[in-house]
């Protein structure tokens, strides 16, 4: 297959595993497209709901289509009282991503289409999942803080309503707008680890919820969705701009990863960096006086310098470096950052699950089953002989 390389021990980098019409990454030019539209264009002119429609349906909606789509999302925001009671029994110190994963799994039991394998049923399940994820995240944040859970407000947009449920009041217009932009920027990103996990589960013909639960599990790791959380933890650990340079030197000297720098795909700056950088500037009047913004700029500067010294190569910032600072400006707790990623990416996951199960043009279903190059002893340590347990010497 064109573009295929030896995939052993490379995390499948450079290996084409399936066709998709959902998004495309131009890794050299640093461009990201959703259904043929540059993400920079969508964050400038669109909304999260319109972009979600585009991703799911392959075209920008007419006004009537968007109104219906938005109405469907609003009608599915509430979570069953039984599920809410379950969440109230979870230990308060539980990580938000673990809570989200287990709650989505339970919500499957309340979906009337759970055993319907039609494409139409998959769309309905997807709408429910996309609509309920923000409610679950906001509810958990308030439950763990011993605060009352806020009911969804159907007069608000998808992203505005989430902030309302999280804080208990409307966020300032600038924050609402920047949060919507951030959600558009994170909505889809081709065959990343969590999306691929969802597609693998979907390839077994499992239902949508099972695939989404797998995606959330993949996203929770600090090499994927957890990287944004790790950025903020690093910033707090460093403490001040004056300490950034030595921290970067120490990290690289000890072969430790610097979260927010480098990307598995892009060979240049992640295109979402500029989008979120502009949002940070919108929310900060005296940007140069904002400590964490100063610090990420210094992390970027010194990591580039030291990486070139050590590796003789360039390294660039990714979306996590800037999203951490943006969410901090909004007053959102840093351990919620991976869950915000899930909130935005849910539309991408659901669309990939549907594409995996119902490709266009129709194809015979393919179960993912890669090979592994076995490096163990061919006949085992005893030449393949089975030794009874009482006679084993080791």
Number of strands: 3
**Please, how many helices?**
16
CATH architecture of the largest domain: Orthogonal Bundle
Task: Identify the overall geometry.
Answer: globular
Helix content: 40-55%
- In the CATH scheme, the class of the largest domain would be Mainly Alpha
Strand count, sense and barrel status of the largest sheet are:
3 strands, antiparallel
Tell me the number of structural domains.
Answer: 2
> Helix/strand-derived class?
mainly alpha
How big a fraction of the residues is strand?
under 5%
Fold-level CATH name of the largest domain: Citrate Synthase, domain 1
Q: Give Rg in angstroms.
A: 22 Å
Short description:
The chain is mainly α and about 400 residues long.
Task: Jot down its keywords.
mainly alpha; Citrate Synthase, domain 1; Cytochrome p450-Terp, domain 2; 2 domains; three-stranded antiparallel sheet; globular
Explain the overall architecture:
This protein is an all-alpha fold and 394 residues long. The chain is 53% helix and 3% strand. Helix 5 (96-107) packs across helix 6 and helix 9 (193-203) packs antiparallel against helix 10 (208-219).
């Amino acid at each position: 297959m064109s573009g295929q390389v030896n995939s052993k021990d490379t995390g499948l980098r450079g290996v084409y595993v399936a066709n998709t019409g959902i998004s495309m990454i131009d890794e050299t030019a640093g461009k990201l497209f959703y259904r043929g539209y540059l993400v920079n264009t969508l964050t400038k002119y669109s909304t999260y709901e319109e972009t979600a429609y585009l991703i799911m349906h392959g075209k920008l909606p007419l006004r009537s289509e968007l109104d219906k789509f938005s109405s469907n999302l609003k009608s599915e925001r509430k979570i069953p009282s039984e599920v809410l009671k379950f969440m109230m029994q979870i230990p308060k110190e539980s990580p938000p991503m673990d809570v989200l994963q287990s709650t989505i799994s339970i919500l499957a039991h309340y979906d009337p289409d759970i055993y319907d394998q039609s494409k139409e049923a998959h769309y309905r399940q997807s709408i429910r999942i996309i609509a309920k994820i923000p409610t679950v995240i906001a509810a958990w944040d308030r439950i763990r803080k011993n605060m009352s859970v806020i009911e969804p407000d159907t007069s608000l947009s998808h992203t505005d309503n989430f902030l309302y449920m999280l804080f208990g009041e409307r966020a300032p217009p600038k924050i609402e707008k920047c949060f919507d932009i951030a959600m558009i920027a994170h909505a889809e990103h081709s065959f990343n680890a969590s999306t691929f996990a969802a597609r693998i589960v979907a390839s077994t013909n499992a239902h949508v919820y099972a695939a989404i639960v797998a995606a959330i599990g993949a996203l929770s790791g600090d090499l994927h969705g957890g990287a944004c959380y790790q950025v903020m933890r690093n910033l707090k650990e460093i403490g001040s701009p004056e300490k950034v340079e030595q921290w970067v030197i120490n990290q690289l000297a000890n072969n430790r990863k610097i979260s927010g720098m480098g990307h598995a795909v892009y060979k240049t700056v992640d295109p979402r960096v500029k989008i979120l950088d502009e949002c940070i500037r919108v929310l900060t009047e005296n940007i140069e006086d904002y400590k964490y913004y100063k610090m990420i700029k210094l992390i970027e500067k010194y990591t580039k310098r030291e990486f070139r010294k050590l590796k003789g190569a360039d390294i660039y910032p990714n979306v996590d470096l800037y999203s951490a600072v943006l969410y901090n400006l909004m007053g959102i707790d840093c351990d919620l950052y991976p869950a915000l990623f899930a909130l935005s990416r849910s539309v991408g996951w659901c669309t990939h699950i549907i594409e995996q199960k119902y490709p266009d043009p129709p194809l015979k279903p393919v179960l993912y089953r890669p090979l592994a190059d076995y490096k163990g002893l061919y006949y085992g340590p005893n030449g393949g002989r089975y030794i009874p347990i009482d006679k084993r010497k080791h």
